[in-house]
Please model this.
Amino acid sequence: MNWDGKFKEALVSDTKGMISLYEASHFRMNGELILDEALAFTTLHLESCLANQLSSPPHLTEYIANALYQPYHKGVPRIEARQYISFYEKEESRNDVLLKFAKYDFNRIQMLLQEELSLLCSWWKESDFESKFPHVRHRNVEAFSLAVGFYFEPCYARARNIYAKMVSILGFVDDTYDAYGTYEELQYFTDAMQRFDMSAKDKLPSDYLKLLYQTILDIHDEAEEKVSKEERSYSVSYTKNEFKKLVVAYLAQARWVHDGYLPTFDEYLETALKSSAAILTCSQALIRMEEADENAYQWLINTDNKIHKALNIFARLHDDIMTNEDEEKRGLVCGTTCYMKQYGVTRKEAIEAYRERIEDAWKELNEGCMRPTPVPTQILMRAVNYARFMEVAYKDNDGFGEPQISLQDHIAKLLIHPIPL
Model:
């Protein structure tokens, strides 16, 4: 930096150095003004470099475009690994032995993941969910891709299996509250979920709710049977408690629609952060992780935890940005509309405010990971990877609602197509 506290313009000529500084600046925390300046400085000059085609060799242009679109820190690790291999392959200074090992490693793990996905799909087909629940979206493959986003390492195969199952069923519940169940039915279902016991099933008013309730109990019983042998039944207990909180928030939102009530943004956010399902899905991801002791769950559910707050922000605001216009047409209460009403702004301005809050949440997440914490790195990385997947899945569209637009391409690279050797 020069005497004025600005970055020297001479740095612009070092394109690779600029990319490295740009990537490093995404690890910034609140109050790190130098890294804020670094991000603005590098973004401006890399965009200029891209626009004027000043980078050489040609593959560096592609590298810059990818970095500006998806910073490494905010990308899904396995997708970023594949992307970087394709860039590294074009480097004149590459190490061919290292490159070959990287390709072999990626393809080997992909083969293991394919076997896991095959088992999951067999379970899905045997369970006959598509005929049992025709009114909901069926996203078992997308759920497995989220599991891989959380942890791709072979040692977490058992964790991925139960997690993908739970997230798939969670999608059924979400669709039931959002689009299918009547308000009266949802009241009964919410009450039953607070009991989480088979005795509550017969009190449900419709067969499809009884079947859904049975399915939820079955998948949690399966998880509990497995973890009880490891003396980790607490993991399922904490997960059930988060599920109970989630459906209460779902019902509160359904009540707004039923009553024709548009809350203020502050009121909306208080409930919508709870209905984001971020803490529940992270709890589910920890169930079969040996590193996740009871202390890890207590840390995760602590509402004073910076990372807890950031995860809810990522899940809720990313989702709102990409789904609110469509949801508004279906008569649902939408966060951006509440924001527009409370602050008297346009939808575009509301979305910009949302994006600023998401950036602040990244700073909080970074700080939460860099400061001393009571949990091991393996647990912290699950939180970071969840944030990364939300960033990628909702980058340009609703990746879960319309996976065919962009998420399917990521899934194909992640799980289907090996890297050519």
Notes: Residues 178 and 295 are 34 Å apart (CA to CA).
